[in-house]
Amino acid sequence: MVAITNTTSLTFLKDAIDTTLGEAEANVEAFAEDQAQPAVLDQCAESFHQLRGISQMLELSAAALLSEEMELACQELKRHGERPLMQALSNAVVLLGRYFEYVQLKDRTLPEMLIGGINELRRAAGKALIQESHFFSVDLSRPRTPPAAPGDHIALARQSRRLRHMYQVGLLGLLRGQNRDAHLRLMARALERVDGLSGAGANSRFWWVARAATETLAVDGLVITPARKALLAQYDRQLKKLIYDGDHALQQEAPLLLIKESLYLTSLGAGSGPAAAEVRAAFALERGASDADLQRELALMTGSRGSVIRSVAGALKDEINQIKETLDLAAQGVADVDYRAVAEGMRRVASTLEMVGKESEAAALRERATQVAGWPADTDVDSGDFHALVDDLLAAENIVASLERSLAPSDDVRRAATNSRISLYQLDEARMTVVGECRAGLALAKRSLAAYMENQWDPMHLSNLPGTFASISGGLMFLELERACQVVKACRAQIEEQLIGASQPPGQPVMETLADALTGIDYYLESMEEQKPIGDGVLDVAEQAVAELGYPVTHDATGSERV
What's the N-to-C CA distance of the chain in angstroms? Predict the structure, then answer.
């Protein structure tokens, strides 16, 4: 990427650029209103040709390419006059003007910020899209460093379908907009296993960089764009080749474009993951603009928006909490209460509830406020009226909680309480405490298994696991997560019978498969903590893993999970 070290030239040309863009925009609008005047498109094309030359002189490669696409779009419009292409051209005029202004003010080029606009024009014109790595340069001839360890093609052939299914579960959840981080880590886990089992064949470098790219998407929180979804889908096609072509697929190097795109994504992260760190070092990927930088600068250039509903819910919650704090002080006898102020706060809450369509609840709260306004400061906190006030506030709080839940994915794992006198917030906190304890138990179990492997398969490191898994199972039963509970029980049985009580070490493949099962349950629980459901597909993967270990599990016909 070429950086502008002196924006003097752009500053001198900026007035001319703005004038040219203004004339072009007017001509596009004129053609949109009257397509019987194709001559205005010739004027537009000439303007964009001039802008292309200016961009090339200023070494703004992305602006030059966008200007070229705009010139070609004018020619296409003159022949066919499609409405989508006309709209895309209008958007491109605005985007190009903002980009020139951005470069002048920030003294940064960041050509990646124009890829979306370029592709919008190309898509409208029916042309192939350019890759995100279009402006990215890297030496694709570099080998994998350090070299891959010996693989196990027999194990890969046996496990390839399950590993692809693991990857597909993550990809499907990602495409549905569900818990992105957990799904990405599931996909990275599948690619890690494939990379380890495939060994040092011709395809080895691809699985290495694909794993690094997926790892970077997960660890560094990169935005999942349509282009990145398409790249992840390409990885799935390569997994399919492994299943159906076997060793032949391992001896064929993947397309270099896939490797370049994977390297570009890896370059946008910090290299925190093990594979990403290796790839960044091997290909000398310099630390440039991160994906977070790009998204922030793109938002600065194009603008952003927020959620009105979420703001309303937050304001309601704050107002109710203030009233609850006042009533808590009254219940403790710490201070006298101005119930007129309490009533006024309740009326504000009622007014806001009406705004979100909760008219009946608002009317009940307003009626209660009328009664409360006349209470003396020393009202008996043990009276029935005081408890009725608390119940009304709890009902209002649960409405707010339900409103917040409406903003979450439709398959949110948190269920409503059957008892209306229970605070949804407190109930969720209790449930999440149990989820956290289960995850802590899984983390302890994984550390114990790692120590078992690192210390020459010494079963002493597993002595605490039966009790740990019993605690985890109990927590999952409390949460009514039957499928997850059955997987954990299967893992416990496998550990007790094949690890603690065995005379021979189980071997690396068995431990990897056991780790797949535990990782699946951990991802599932993590998705509950973050209120970003990962779906039951990850449980399918965990069940397949324990079945491969010889401990298949069963569940009810619905297969439903509750928390």
Answer: 50
User: How far apart (Å, rounded) are the C-alpha atoms in residues 332 and 329?
Assistant: 5
Place of tokens 């005379």: 503
Cβ 499 vs Cβ 476: under 8 Å: no
Integer angstrom CA distances of residue 221 from 16, 106, 269, 272, 525: 40, 25, 9, 12, 19
Helices within 356-458 (DSSP H only): 359-372, 384-406, 424-454
534 Ramachandran zone, left/alpha/beta (phi>0; psi -120 to 50): alpha
d(CA 172, CA 187): 10
Average pLDDT over residues 8-33: 83
Distances (CA, A) of 422 to 239, 389, 392, 426, 506: 48, 15, 12, 8, 48
| Of 258-272, 288-302, 449-463, the least confident | 288-302
- CA gap 544, 63 in Å, rounded: 50
- Mean of the per-residue pLDDT values of the chain: 85
Work out the burial of residue 556: count CB atoms within 10 Å of its CB; fewer than 13 is exposed, 13-18 middle, 19 or more buried. Answer: exposed
The answer to whether residue 145 sits within a structural domain is no
> With left for phi above 0 and alpha for psi between -120 and 50, is residue 110 left, alpha or beta?
left
In a domain, 238, yes or no: yes
For residue 170, CA distances in Å to 34, 72, 229, 523 come to: 49, 40, 12, 11
CB 378 within 8 A of CB 336: yes
- Cα torsion through 270, 167, 496, 453, rounded to 10: -40
Give this prediction's pTM: 0.69
Whether 12 and 117 share a structural domain: yes
Do 400 and 525 have their domain in common? no
In Å, how far are 349, 350, 360 from 369, measured between CA atoms? 10, 9, 14
Same domain, 84 and 196: no
> Do both 465 and 369 map to the same domain?
no
Looking at residue 559, its pLDDT comes to: 45
Distant-in-sequence, close-in-space partners of 476: CB < 8 Å, separation ≥ 6? 438, 482, 484, 485, 488
What is the number of domains present in the chain? Answer: 4
**Is 416 domain-assigned?**
no
CA atoms 255, 258, 261, 265: torsion sign: negative
499 & 372 share domain? no
Two tokens, residue 433: 């405490």
Residue 499's domain is classified under what CATH number? 1.20.120.160
Where in the sequence is the domain holding 314, given as residue range(s)? Answer: 308-406
